[in-house]
Amino acid sequence: MRRTTAVLLALAILSPASVQAETSASGAKSSKIAFLLSLAVPGLGELYSGATKRGIGFMAAEAFTWVAYASWRSKGNDLKADFRQFADQHWGEANYRAWQAYNASQGYPYVETETLRVKAEDTQQYYEMIGKYAQFVFGWDDVAAAFTTDFDIMRDLSARRLDYEAQRNESNKYLKRASVVIGLAVINRVVSAIHASAHARSLQASNAVKRIWVDTTPLDRYGRPGVGASVNVRF
Q1: What average pLDDT does the segment 216-227 reach?
Q2: Spacing of C-alpha 208 from chain mean position
Q3: Where are the domains of the chain?
Q4: Among 37, 132, 195, 232, which residue has the fewest nearby CB atoms (within 10 Å)?
Q5: Euclidean distance between CA atoms 195 and 125, whole angstroms
């Protein structure tokens, strides 16, 4: 009887007593930090969270996209400089204005749909228009004096214009590739950030903290003197 009373007294003094067993998630990485690191530099978040090989892969993809971008953009700009120089040598506004005067003198003149831009004010549109629209064909020096108002003849009359358009299309091809690569670089960055965050979270889950509590009470579940206990486990 004395032993039972002593046990109950000890439990009453300690109640509610907790006994905790814990294994900490040592080395766990923040998923938010991993996300931000890879958003800044693809692969960096993976290196931070321990996915070294995947991090190197994302970094290699990033390096490839920027090398390709620099190469294709440089090639496109070089070709742009070449076709603009070609136009400056072989297309003249004076020739085009002479055809305009001829066209205006006709009983049924060709109706022009575009207005030539001033080169110094809208350089991009100027160089696009002189090759793209048939009405500007008579600015090219190989057909400058062959005036006509026939639309079909105008479009394909100048070999210079056809050559110029081929050069311009080649330049645009490389510049468009460079633009696509920029899009791929953005996608690589976003995918890397999401992956790094998910990898960090998976490590946190696998190393989750386990806690076990044993709560004791000097009363049983009916409120009578005795020993009661409850066990709580959290992962």
Answers
A1: 53
A2: 34
A3: 1-24+209-235, 31-206
A4: 232
A5: 43
